[in-house]
Specification:
It is a single chain. This protein is of the alpha+beta class. It has helices spanning 2-100, 103-120, 134-149, 180-200; strands at 125-130, 153-158, 164-169, 176-179. It has one domain: hypothetical protein PF0899 fold (2-Layer Sandwich), CATH 3.30.2320.30. 76% of the residues lie in helices and 11% in strands. The chain has a 4-stranded mixed sheet with strand order 2-1-3-4. Helix 2 packs parallel to helix 3 (134-149). The N and C termini lie far apart (119 Å).
Length: 202
């Protein structure tokens, strides 16, 4: 009887030990699986973070390079434009202003323009002239020019005109600008393509 009881005890112990070992191995396998899954997930997340950071860095670098290229192109264009303006102003501006500030030359142009103007317009003429030439031109306009064109001429003298003049019908509507600034713009338009070709090969 004692032997049977011992045998039963040994068998129960062996079965319990076997089941405990199996359960332990199962739990250990599950723990290994979960650990592998956690490590794989962590690696995937780390790879995604690194990929996003590299993409952001590449985008930032591309944007910075684009901004630098754009700023360089704008600076180059502004510099070229400044050089072009300086050369054109030197080539045309001073000579135009000097010619249009010469009262004898101005009188000749005004006489010619006013005569043509008087033939095509029924109204009197309005002239705007440089204030710097008022003393010399005002008596000439009122006397000699008015007689020559056979119409009334209203002359105004403005500090806004450095040289040259504007002419229009007395009642307004339109006018012709023959000031130094207008001539400068006109000549600059003709000189600009030539200047660009000489300076920049365009």
């Amino acid at each position: 009887m004692q032997d049977k009881l011992q045998e039963l005890t040994d068998r129960l112990y062996a079965e319990g030990l076997s089941k405990g070992k199996e359960e332990g191995e199962r739990l250990l396998a599950e723990a290994h699986t979960k650990a592998d899954e956690t490590i794989a997930a962590a690696k995937a997340e780390a790879a995604a973070i690194i990929e996003a950071a590299e993409k952001n860095a590449a985008d930032l670098r591309a944007k910075a390079e684009s901004d630098v290229r754009m700023a360089s192109a704008q600076a180059l264009q502004a510099t070229r434009s400044d050089i072009e303006k300086l050369i054109i102003a030197k080539a045309a501006g001073d000579k135009v202003s000097a010619a249009l500030a010469d009262s004898a030359f101005i009188k000749e142009i005004i006489r010619s323009v006013a005569a043509s103007f008087a033939q095509s317009e029924a109204t009197d003429i309005r002239l705007v002239l440089p204030a710097s030439l008022q003393a010399e031109l005002e008596p000439w306009v009122a006397g000699e020019l008015s007689k020559a064109v056979g119409k009334g001429i209203q002359a105004e003298f403005s500090k806004k005109i450095g040289a040259g003049f504007t002419i229009a019908p007395k009642d307004g509507g339109w006018y012709v600008d023959l000031s130094d600034e207008a001539f400068g713009r006109l000549i600059a338009e003709y000189l600009r393509p030539v200047t660009r070709k000489i300076l920049f090969g365009e």
